[in-house]
Model the fold of this input.
Amino acid sequence: MKLWQKEGVTTAEQIERFTVGRDREMDLYLAPFDVLGNLAHAQMLETIGLLTDHELSLLNDELKAIYQDIEEGSFVIEEGVEDVHSQVELLLTRTLGNVGKKIHSGRSRNDQVLVDLKLFTRDRLWRVAEATQRVFDRLIDRSEQHKNDLLPGYTHLQIAMPSSFGLWFGAYAEALADDMLTLQTAYRLSNRNPLGSGAGYGSSFPLNRTLTTELLGFEGMHVNVVYAQMSRGKTEQTALTALAAIAATISRMAMDICLYNSQNFGFLTLPDALTTGSSIMPHKKNPDVAELLRAKTNRLKALPMEVTLVMSNLPSGYHRDMQLLKEILMPAFDELLDCLDITEFMLEHIQVKTNLLDDSKYDLLFSVERVNELVLQGVPFREAYQTVGKEIAEHTYNPPRTLHHTHEGSIGNLGTELIVDHMAKAVAGFGVDRAQNAIETLLGRSR
Done:
C-alpha cells in the first residue's frame, strides 16, 4: 500500500503511472537523505515518548544498514513502491514489524520530501562549491603563470587597449569568486529545517523541532509551518539561480576560448587531445569541448525560469505541480559538476601564445598609452587625445610599447591576493563544518 492509501481503495493504473511520473527515478537521489531524516526524526520521537529506547535502537541499527546499502549501490525502489519514503518504511516494517510503522508519527510526506530536498540540495551545492574552487585555483595559477604575456583587449569586438593573459584568466577567477557568494546564499537557504511542519500546518504532538535542526546540522529552521511548505520552489529556484550564475561564467569563458583558438585570432591553442577533426577537411582542429561547454551551460541558465513557470500562480500550501521540480533540479547538479570538471581539465592543458602584441596590426592598441605619455609631459588630456588622433590620421603615430600599469587589478598589478581573499571569505561563509559534523555524528561515525 501507498503511504496515503486507505483500505480497499485502488487507483487506476493509468492515473498512477501519470501521477508518479519520473518520481521513483528522481527519488534515488534522495535515498541517503531520507535515511538521515528518519534517523533524526526517530531520535526526536524517543525524547517525546513516542518511541522507547529499545525501539529507537532497533530503528537506528536498521536505518544505518539501509544507508550502507545505499552507499554500496544495492538500494533499489522496488516495483510497485511509489517513492523512496515508502521504500525505506517498507524495509523497516519488513524487518521490525510495528516498530517500523511508528517512524511516520508526527510527520507528513510533505515535510519528509522537504527535508530530503533540503539535505540533498545542501549537499550538492557544497559539491559544486568545491568543484568551483578547483576551477578558480586553476585560473589563479594560469593568471600568475602568464601575467607578463600580453593579449589584445577588445570592446565592440574591435581592438581597444593592451590586456594580458594574466588579466584574462584572473577576470574569470574573480567572476567565480562572486558566483560563490550566490552559491553561498542558496546553500544557506537550503540549510534550514522544515521537519515538523507536517503537511504545512504542524502537529498536535509536542515535536522538538530544535532538536532535529541540531541533529541534521541545519543552520536554523523554517519557523512558520506554512512558510516551511512555501519554501518548496523557492529553494529550488535559488539553487538553480546560483548554478546558472556559474554556468554563465563558464559559458562566456568557453566562447572566448572558441574565438581565441580560431585562426583569425590565434591567441591560444587547444592540444590535439582536446579537439576533434572534420570528415572532409584534413586541416580542421575543432574546439568541441569549449563548444559543448557553451551549449550545456547555456541550457543551465534557462532552468530558474522553468521553476518560475511551474510555480506561477500557485497559492500557499502544497500542490502536486511541485513534484516536477525534482526533474529540473537534480540532473542540473550532475550537468554542472561535469562541466566544471572538464573546464578544469581544459584550463590545465590550454596553451598560450606569447609575444602577440609585437605584430604591427596591434599598434593602435597603444594609442591610450601615447595619450597618457603626453599628459605626463603636461599636455591637458583633451588636447593630448586630439593630438594622438591627428597622429593616427596622418600616419605619424609611433606606439609606445612599454607599459606602466601599476594600480590594483591592472596588467602590472593583478591583485591576485585580493581575489583569493574574496574567494576564501565566500567559501568560509557556507559554514559547512556544522552540517558535515552533524551528519557523521548521526551516522555514528567520527571525522
